[in-house]
Amino acid sequence: MSILLSHISKNFGDFSALHNIDLEIPEGELVALLGPSGCGKTTLLRIIAGLEQADSGHIFLNGEDKTAHHVSERGIGFVFQHYALFRHMTVFDNVAFGLRVKKKEHRPNEAIIAKKVHALLELVQLDWLHDRFPDQLSGGQRQRIALARALAVEPSVLLLDEPFGALDASVRKDLRQWLRNLHNELNVTSIFVTHDQEEAMEVASQVVVLNKGHIQQQGSPADIYDYPANVFVSKFIGQTNEFHLHRHTSDWLKQTGLHIPQESDSIAHVRPHDIEIINALDGNSPIILKDWQHLGALIRVELTKKLHESEPKTLYAEMPNEQFKRLNLTRGDRVELKIRQAHWFNSL
Amino acid sequence: MSQSRIMPAFRPTISFTLFYLSLVVLIPLSTLVFKSFELHWNDYVDIITNKRVLAAFRVSFTTSLGAAAVASFFGFIVAWVLVRYSFAGKRFFHALIDLPFALPTAVAGIVLATIFQPSGYLGQFLKQHFELQIGFKPLGIVVALIFISIPFVVRTVEPVLQEFDSRMEEAASSLGATRLQVFTKIIFPNIFPALLTGFALSFARGVGEYGSVIFISGNIPYVSEILPLLIVTKLEQYDIAGATAIGLTMLIISFVLLFFINVLQHWVRKRSGQI
Amino acid sequence: MSSISTNVHQSTLDDPKWLRWSLIAIALGFIILFLCVPLLLVIIQAFSKGVAAYFSALNQHDMLAAMRLTLLTALITVPLNTIFGVAAAWAITRFDFRGKDFLITLIDLPFSVSPVISGLIFVLMFGAQGWLGHWLMANDIKIIFAVPGIVLATLFITFPFVARQLIPFMQEMGSEEEEAALSLGASGWKMFFFITLPNIKWALLYGVLLCNARAMGEFGAVSVVSGHIRGLTNTLPLHVEVSYNEYDSVSAFAGASILAGLAIMTLILKTLLEWKQQSSRQSH
Fold this sequence. Notes:
Shape of chain C: globular
Radius of gyration of chain C: 23 Å
Order of helices and strands of chain C: HHHHHHHHHHHHH
Radius of gyration of chain B: 23 Å
Number of helices of chain B: 13
Number of strands of chain C: 0
Largest interface: B-C, 97 and 103 residues
Low-confidence stretches of chain C: 1-12
Mean pLDDT of chain C: 87
Shape of chain B: globular
Oligomer: heterotrimer
Number of helices of chain C: 13
Number of strands of chain B: 0
Order of helices and strands of chain B: HHHHHHHHHHHHH
Largest sheet of chain B: none
Strand content of chain C: under 5%
Structural class of chain C: mainly alpha
Helix content of chain C: over 70%
């Protein structure tokens, strides 16, 4: 089911949490709402769910205006950040809840409910826990039960608030992949909120980047990474080296082989893996190798650039282990750089 | 975060709350204030500055202060022992602390009177060996008020002592402080606001206490007559004006104390980092 | 009941043994003198003239009437204040509105008012010289020196108990589970009965327990409005007072033993409920 938001605004007192948000999400996508804490992403998710009311604007689910509908009548499934499992109910009763509270004329009988609940528990691979209480489960198990509970009412839209936020790093990795596979299987339009760009890139088919109540960019993970719309997105989505253009830097950048466009753009962002290091033989280069760290398969190289009277600047480059070994460098060596590409932004 | 439009039943619950609050508490309390408008200022001053009334004020305040002080001292030790040490029967003693909350004040009153009156179990002993009379004296009132005050002090100090970060003690010890210095410079300053709150709560309760006091105090005018009893006496003599004047004064005092206690509790929460 | 779980201290923080034991001795001595001895004495005094005298004292007409009145008062006031407590806690913890802190202060007011004043205000309202006194007399309605006055004074005294217990509990509980229930399509009532009520039940029972103990045991306020008419307007605590003042020690302490038994029951249940509450909160 498609989701359409038009002109959504929300204030908390003087604080503007969301500012005139327009967003369209096609059917079947798995969308990440990505942004730093306080950017309004959770508020937006709660507004879509109907847990929060927007000050203005409309919400359409599958073309139908649901703005005035109460959360219990929107047909959404919501997975809460801390799961909000009903502590006094077993896993089975938790998942069955949404079916049991249906109005009498729509309520399936207990046999059908049982069948459905067990099917869902099997889907999340936890049927063997059906008579446990939430306290007896691990974080990852609770997460999957919360998901099964939300799916029981066959929601047209699945909304997840920081679904991996409260989990250990190792469990998180597994669940990400699992969620992606589950989505492929069910194909329910889903939105999840996260502040972790890596998580958004890995799981989502579409990423919406938010900051300070504004949508910064919407697109596929590849689009967002390769064509960041502005400085904020570029910095938020991955590590980057920033160069403000003036005479010295632009001369120097030209020497690294970078093509500098003639437009008004005056900030260059260079990803660490777009910097190539060459051993400087003449010893006149302004770049000094300061230190390096191992990041698994990659090496991160810390470089200091000192040009004329300007402040020393630290740059980061990344390259495979093997390549770094072949360069045979030690701390304090002078090196030359090749910059393959940069993203250009207005300084405004 | 505002959930006002999602959660159901704001209107009915808030309406009922305000209606019931007005009916049971606010309207009855306001009659005392409005009734006192029928008094002239001079009448009011006459009633309040009457010698017997002043004596009752003195008795009520001094006994409440004394009892609150004693209860704070012992209450602190009790809280300390209950939080920090382990010993047999701890759970039992811990549960018993709330007895003065649960035991009707009239029962406490007649039991304490039976123990401490001059012919009573302990009263007789103290009189014979120490020339000390407790019953029918202000000291008897203090004893009754100590009984009432125990849970106020213990239950206020206990959670703060419980939450106290013992790493601060370890840090102080590692910097060379003696155990006594750790107590006076680290622990006590952190517990003090709570102890003061317990003291104030005890004092406020003591000034208004009636049931547990009247049996042991003997109610001798100018000596052991407390304010609440004076109100009852005035009412029995159909002196509505007198009862109203004293009642209003007590009400004002308890509001001032309530305000003071609220400020204290705010301070406690701020100190313990809850705000 | 959190202090039951003793802190594990490192040896550097342990107090010396002599200090520990003297402090424990002082604390226990104090508790025993002020709390245990009085409790025991109630029993000793009640049975001082033998078991038969005790039971015949309990069987007196006035005593039974006093017990009935005490029960009746509790049966009226506790449910009313419980409904109020739930409604107030719901409005206060689940919604934002201006003046909330002030409202909480107002709810706490009866705690800071002397019991005698709590009685006095109803005399000023409904007594012979009170505001509605003439009208009530003309219509032959008796409130002061009658059961309605006792109920009203008790209602006032026990007003904050349930609300005061529930407000911090529901605040801490948060509303995520309730939101989850709504998002799964539950109606307001279903959410309340299936989610809210099961979650707050121990805290609610705790408040009801304290409310009931006070309703049955209140003395000062009730004493002012009751008129002490034997067999008619004496609650159990008042009957204890009257008997004591008439030097009927066995009667007084027999009545007191019932009230003390009630207090002990309250303490035991309270302790159990604290454990329940704690274990259900810890697992959250």
